[in-house]
Amino acid sequence: MSDTSELPPVITIDGPSGSGKGTIARLLADRLNFALLDSGALYRLTALAALEQGADLTDEATLTEIAANLDIRFELRDGEVAALLAGRDVSHDIRMERVSMAASKVAAMPGVRAALLQRQRDFRQAPGLVADGRDMGTTVFPDAPVKVFLTASAEERARRREAQLREKGVSVSLRDLLEDIRARDARDMNRETSPLAPAKDAVELDSTGVAIDSVLQTVLQLVRERIGISRPG
Ligand SMILES: Nc1ncnc2c1ncn2[C@@H]1O[C@H](COP(=O)(O)OP(=O)(O)O)[C@@H](O)[C@H]1O
Ligand SMILES: Nc1ccn([C@H]2C[C@H](O)[C@@H](COP(=O)(O)OP(=O)(O)O)O2)c(=O)n1
């Protein structure tokens, strides 16, 4: 591997759906003034573009072509990161259930993953990057000095999703959510290319029953130890 020690540092946060990756990644990026990569959004954008074009979701060549040619941008709007597809704000659309399902299918395709690899690496910039996903520490940024693998029990992750949906006025049964979470875990962990797994040098954190701020403090401590930076607050 080439020498990457001069590149800006990356903090990778990988783990299953609902473990709190997005929440912790955002808080860390704010605290450290680092850039943020929500890699799941790239798979969601690919899925949305494919659905909108009426593409066959099992046709890897077409899906790879779509991923390679995505016209996407992330912009800060009202304090939130907005995802733009061909200039259109699709932040809401990419969170729809049918897009989540399609995203987990397209994410299993090696061609799609390869097409999105360099785009993800391009997010690396000074003074540093926080990258959230499934394979940030294993495949995309294997040289990252800080790697976290965040977990929580499936039951707790289903309860968190239920609360999140309830807040949006959507009511779903906990049992259905738990089933969905288990199905997605199985698909993410059992695919051949870049399956969900901790990097050998990742620190595993179980956030079951642990408050968000407490998880954040643990990760900040790790950042201080590994790259010697922190911001007060
Ligand atoms: N440690 C925690 N304790 C309780 N709720 C949490 C914790 N971490 C995250 N959450 C909540 O769980 C939900 C899912 O978190 P999110 O960051 O979107 O997970 P992921 O990105 O891993 O799918 C959000 O509503 C978030 O506020
Ligand atoms: N680096 C990544 C990020 C996401 N994925 C997959 C996993 C999921 O099925 C989809 C969407 O990921 P996302 O992190 O947005 O999903 P959750 O919010 O955790 O439910 O993409 C991936 O395979 N590799």
Q: Would you mind describing this structure in some detail?
A:
There is one protein chain. The chain is an alpha/beta fold. It has 2 domains: 9-34 and 127-213, P-loop containing nucleotide triphosphate hydrolases (Rossmann fold), CATH 3.40.50; 38-125, 3-Layer(aba) Sandwich (Rossmann fold), CATH 3.40.50.300. The protein has helices spanning 21-32, 39-52, 60-68, 97-106, 110-121, 136-140, 154-167, 174-190, 212-227; strands spanning 10-14, 35-38, 72-77, 80-85, 88-89, 129-133, 146-151, 203-206. A 5-stranded parallel beta sheet has the order 2-6-1-7-8. The chain has a 3-stranded antiparallel beta sheet with strand order 3-4-5, with helices on one face. Helix 3 (60-68) packs parallel to helix 5 (110-121) and helix 7 (154-167) crosses helix 8 (174-190). The chain is globular. The model has no long low-confidence stretch (mean pLDDT 92). The site of deoxycytidine diphosphate (YYY) has 13 residues, from helix 2, helix 4 and helix 8. Belongs to the cytidylate kinase family. Type 1 subfamily. Keywords: ATP-binding, Cytoplasm, Kinase, Nucleotide-binding, Transferase. GO terms for molecular function: ATP binding; CMP kinase activity; dCMP kinase activity.
